[in-house]
Amino acid sequence: MNDATNEAARGASPAGIGGWRGAGDVLGMLVVLAALAGLFGMFSGHFWSAQTVKTIVNQSADLTAVAVGMTLVLVIGGIDLSVGSVMALCAAVLGLATVDWNLPFPVAVAACLAAGAACGLVNGFITVHWSIPSFIVTLGMLESARGATYLITRSETKYVGPRIEWLARPIPGLGASTSFLIALGLVAAGHVLLTRTVLGRYMVAIGTNEEAVRLSGVDPRPTKMLTFVLSGLCAGIAAVFQVSRVSSADPNGGVGLELGAIAAVVIGGTSLMGGRGSVLRSFLGVLIIAVLQTGLDHVGASEPAKRLISGAVIVLAVVADVHRRSWGGTIRRAVGRFRTKPRPPA
């Protein structure tokens, strides 16, 4: 990359958790996690238990996978509203390949992932080559993928059975499932991609100033298309996790998943305006969402109440994201004035 692209990508270091700012964000999220756990533990005696921890960990694998892809898309200044429907479509392909077509399990998983990547490719192609906002494109894919799911399954749930359940079973002596461990590996891979590779620097640079990237001689279109493909691929991985957890492919699965993913990613500090994000902090955001939902279940909150609280969390996260830079600038100016304040003569 030349000087112009390096200047645009200078926000790449904040994409990770390095530095005082990133460490402060992580510490703040850990404090929120501890506060939520303490609050729900006060109202439910069963919340502080090993079983609750296992439930939170092993049921968050699919949301974690989707959040990784959503982080990458938001970093380039886009958004993917189709991840829930794409996950349902990929799960349907997995169910059909396993039950109706009797394909070997690895081949069925490959077909599932290919379906997700294909949906991401369509999103990226239309967004990039026809210059249509990704909000509109992925909103259309949300409806199209859901309709395709109903068509290919005839609106019937496909029971897969024990051939895939082993992914969701807790590993003896560890408690975490294989799917959760794979999700952790996906988080690590996404973190390395975003903070340690040229592709990741391009993503941050595009989200920061796409025109500067273009003027520096780098075509942003392949990177943007690949980002949407990766988001679709992550949705396919999430479909494998969900099917293994519920032992079936439900055409109604994944409804509202995009909202949970966006909430987790924004809580993790990824900017809705692009140019700043962290896969690791998005994972902490997933844990916050999972603890919140599990805690509300433990205290007996109704479904409308849970939706109301979840919506409020999303709004508060967006408000915090919008004002994050102004707050940070105010604090830095105050610290600067304190440091440069002249000392009284001795």
UniProtKB/TrEMBL annotation:
Keywords: Cell membrane, Membrane, Transmembrane, Transmembrane helix
Localization annotation: Cell membrane
Membrane topology category: Multi-pass membrane protein
One Pfam family matching this protein: BPD_transp_2
Domain of life: Bacteria
Record carries keyword Oxidoreductase: no
Transmembrane segments: 26-48, 68-96, 103-126, 173-194, 225-243, 255-273
Protein name, UniProt field: ABC transporter permease
Species of provenance: Paludisphaera mucosa
Organism lineage string: Bacteria, Pseudomonadati, Planctomycetota, Planctomycetia, Isosphaerales
